[in-house]
Structure formats: C-alpha cells, structure tokens
Design brief:
The chain is of the alpha/beta class. Helix content is 38%, strand content 19%. The chain is globular and about 40 Å long. The model has no long low-confidence stretch (mean pLDDT 97). Bound molecules: adenosine-5-diphosphoribose (APR). The site of adenosine-5-diphosphoribose has 25 residues, from strand 2 and helix 1.
Length: 170
C-alpha cells in the first residue's frame, strides 16, 4: 500500500523518482513552481516540453528531469479559479488522477505534488487541499501506483492545511 504524507520543501530539491509541475497549457514555463522547476532543470526541459505541443487543463504529460535530482517531471495543468461553478473541482481532481495514472505507466515509485492551482490560479487552499487528498486516496490502492506519494508544501501555512486534511478520514 502506498504511503501518503505532507512535507514543507522546495520541490526542486526532492530526490524522488518524479516531481509534478503545476504548469500552464502552453507547457512553455512560467512563474511559481513552474518557473522554479524549469530554472533547476535547465534548458533541456523547455526543449523537451516544446515537443509535447501543450497540455489541456486536467491532463498530464511527462518529461525527463535533466538537472533536477528527480528523474522525471510530470506536467499537469490545474484549473484557474473562477468561483467554483466552472467545473474547477473536477478538473483539479483530474490533475491528481491523471498524474498518478501516468506515473503508474512509467513504474514511478516515489512522487511529489505541489499544491496545484493554489498560487497564481487562485484556487482556495482548503478546498484544493481536500480535493488533492481525496483524489489521491481514491486511486492510491490501485495496481502499479507509486509506493511513496508526497504533498510538497512551500509554506508552513500550506503544510498545516495539508496535515489537517490528512488527519480527516472522509
Ligand atoms: N516548491 C514547492 N512548491 C512551490 C514552489 C517550489 N519551489 N514554488 C511555488 N510553490 C507553490 C506555491 O506556493 C503554491 O502553493 O506551488 C503552489 C502552486 O502555485 P503556482 O506555482 O502559482 O501554480 P498555480 O497556482 O497552479 O498556477 C499555475 O502559474 O507559474 C505559473 O506557468 C504557471 O501559468 C501557470 C500558473
């Protein structure tokens, strides 16, 4: 059975099989965690991303990690928050589900997620965290799932929200 935990760290420093990038549909980089991952991975990451021809919101695509300690990067595109009545919850859940499904096909054993959509895309943190925990718990028992799944929080505040969500068994 997979283990699921939350830590506070810079995701680009994690020496896991895979880290997940909160990208945009162009997959051509940006700010936030996207900018940090591209900066740490080096220019080869952007070169490979260019070959992927973008990624739809809720979907996920995989590249190498290049200069990152992680071997792979799974790029997923979270929804922009528009108030909650534009299918945001389902699209955010799909980011976690599709990223893990892609990880399973690449026999990835350890993976870290940032708090997708809760930065520039404005998704309220508590709601996004509940979706992240629920979505991962729904699939983590399936075959070939990574054995180690980590929610990588960038701040103490985010970590506290994730830890509270992990303690709830809903
Ligand atoms: N390690 C871990 N988490 C990080 C890091 C990092 N180095 N840098 C930022 N974060 C956190 C943010 O604090 C936030 O909690 O990642 C979470 C997601 O925030 P964003 O990076 O802003 O991503 P998102 O809200 O999904 O917006 C995506 O922003 O950077 C652009 O190109 C990106 O257009 C896309 C949009």
């Amino acid at each position: 059975m997979s283990t699921l935990r939350a830590i506070q760290a810079d995701i680009t420093t994690l020496a896991l099989d895979c880290i997940v990038n909160a990208a945009n549909e162009s997959l051509l980089g940006g700010g936030g965690v996207d900018g940090a991952i591209h900066s740490a991975a080096g220019p080869q990451l952007l070169a490979q991303c260019r070959t992927l021809r973008g990624c739809a919101t809720g979907e996920a695509k995989i590249t190498g990690g290049f200069r990152l300690p992680a071997r792979y990067v799974i790029h997923t595109v979270g929804p922009v928050w528009h108030g909650g009545n534009a299918g945001e919850a389902e699209l955010l859940a799909a980011c976690y589900r599709n990223s893990l499904a892609l990880a399973a096909t690449h026999h990835i054993q350890s993976i870290a997620f940032p708090a997708i959509s809760t930065g520039v895309y404005g998704y309220p943190l508590a709601a996004a965290t509940d979706i992240a925990v629920r979505s991962v718990r729904q699939v983590m028992g399936q075959p070939d799932m990574p054995q180690e799944i980590v929610f990588c929080c960038f701040s103490e505040r985010d970590l506290a929200v994730y830890q509270a969500a992990l303690l709830r068994q809903d």
